[in-house]
Every structure is written in C-alpha cells, then in structure tokens.
C-alpha cells in the first residue's frame, strides 16, 4: 500500500511539473534571463568604459544637403551598442569667427534632429559656450555651421557637451539596483591619476550592453588607457560609509 501511494504521488508531481513547463504563461527564471542578457559574460555584467570623442548626429535631410542628393550614411565601423556605427562620412564644424574643427565623425543611424557633441576643449577651440546636456536635450543650446563636400547646414541649436552616462539593459539595472534616469558613480583607478565621476546617468534599454560613455577630456583626466580597475556603483547607496 505504501509503495502504491508513493508511486501515485510521484506520478502526480511529474504531471504538475510537465503542465507548468508547457504553460504559455511560464517565464524564464531571473537567473536564466540574466545569463542571456546582452553583453553579459559568464553570467555576470561586463562593464566597458568608452571615450566618446567629438561627433555629430544628422537628420536624413541634412545628410543629403551635406553629401549630395540621395546620399545615405555608410557604416565604416560598428560601435559596441548593437545597431549603431561610425559612418564613413565626416563634416567640418564651424563656430563663431570662423573657428573650425575638421573631420568630425558622423554617427549613425540618422536621427529626427541634428546634434553636435563636443568635449570642453573642443567647444573652447570653436569659441562656443556649449552647455553640459544629456543627448537629445538641445532646447536653448547654441548652434554652428556644418560643412560637407556638397553643401552646408546652419544649425540654430544642437551643440552640447555630452553629459556622462551609462547604457544598460534591464538585467544590468536589476543587478545594480537602479532604474532608467537614476544616477550612478564611476571610480576609475589608474597610477597616480584615479578619478571618481559622479552624476553618471542611467539610460536603460532592453537591448543595451553595459557601457559608460565619458568624453575625451574626462578620459584624459583619469588616464583611462592605463586604468587598473573600474567600479560602477549606485549613487547614495552608502557604500563608502564605515
């Protein structure tokens, strides 16, 4: 009798398990989802810190004006974030009093508005008082002239110093305990040149890979090429308290 009851109990357990696995509403466990997250290595987030050198984003209309009717951006090198690339095309950026920067790389794909992203030293060189802004926040920013091989474009706004930020997917957000729009801090340790950057904006997207973007001035300040350790933490987490 005991053997018969045990067998029946085991069968019922196996049936329930099979039904759960075949249910259309079942979802992968957090561990499985995280293991398959974009950019993760060996089941863990893989942090990359990249220097975002001066560049510009263009609309389809401005691409045709600058490079000729029917022109489209041509990818030269894929960026770390899937679907984004450095284009073959470059433009000249002209500021007040005809100060200029030549061969500024265009990044693709095209956008609904054109935008130029500079470091502080770039903006000083151009004579433009470019404010620190997050990408897309261009209202009230200064403009410039873009010159290409087929024409020129006068931007009335869109020149910014790109604020530091971190791209991450939702599994990364869960790992760090943050959400889109939160602020984090990045510590870069390098010989005699360590720096902690505050105000690193979280930009979350399901397809993003964990990557912090800083500009060339910031990268030089911390000697990023010689870094021995990079640590990303949630701001205000109390990690430094003893």
UniProtKB/TrEMBL annotation:
Name where it's found: Bacterial microcompartment
Q: Which GO terms describe its cellular component?
A: bacterial microcompartment
Name one process (GO BP) from the record.
Answer: 1,2-propanediol catabolic process
User: Which cofactors must be present for this protein to function?
Assistant: Zn(2+)
Give the pathway: Polyol metabolism; 1,2-propanediol degradation
GO terms of molecular function? acyltransferase activity, transferring groups other than amino-acyl groups; metal ion binding
What this protein catalyses is: propanoyl-CoA + phosphate = propanoyl phosphate + CoA
Q: What is its EC number?
A: 2.3.1.222
* Keywords (A to Z) from UniProt: Acyltransferase, Bacterial microcompartment, Metal-binding, Transferase, Zinc
Major localisation: other
Q: What does this protein do?
A: Involved in 1,2-propanediol (1,2-PD) degradation by catalyzing the conversion of propanoyl-CoA to propanoyl-phosphate.
Q: Which protein family is named in the record?
A: Belongs to the PduL family.
Protein name as catalogued:
Phosphate propanoyltransferase
């Amino acid at each position: 009798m005991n053997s018969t009851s045990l067998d029946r109990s085991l069968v019922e357990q196996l049936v329930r398990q099979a039904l759960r696995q075949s249910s259309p509403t079942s979802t992968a466990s957090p561990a499985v989802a995280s293991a398959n997250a974009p950019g993760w290595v060996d089941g863990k987030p893989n942090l990359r810190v990249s220097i975002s050198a001066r560049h510009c984003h263009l609309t389809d209309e401005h691409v045709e004006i600058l490079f000729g009717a029917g022109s489209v951006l041509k990818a030269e090198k894929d960026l770390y974030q899937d679907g984004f690339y450095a284009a073959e095309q470059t433009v000249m950026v002209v500021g007040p009093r005809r100060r200029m920067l030549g061969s500024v790389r265009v990044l693709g794909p095209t956008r609904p508005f054109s935008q130029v992203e500079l470091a502080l030293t770039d903006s000083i060189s151009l004579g433009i008082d470019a404010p620190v802004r997050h990408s897309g926040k261009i209202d009230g920013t200064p403009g410039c002239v873009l010159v290409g091989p087929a024409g020129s474009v006068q931007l009335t706004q869109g020149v910014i110093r790109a604020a530091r930020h971190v791209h991450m997917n939702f599994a990364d957000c869960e790992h760090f305990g943050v959400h889109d729009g939160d602020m984090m801090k990045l510590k870069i340790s390098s010989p005699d040149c360590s720096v902690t950057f505050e105000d690193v904006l979280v930009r979350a997207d399901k397809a993003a890979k964990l990557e912090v973007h800083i500009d060339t001035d910031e990268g030089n300040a911390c000697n990023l090429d010689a870094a021995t350790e990079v640590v990303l933490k949630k701001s205000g987490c109390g990690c430094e308290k003893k």
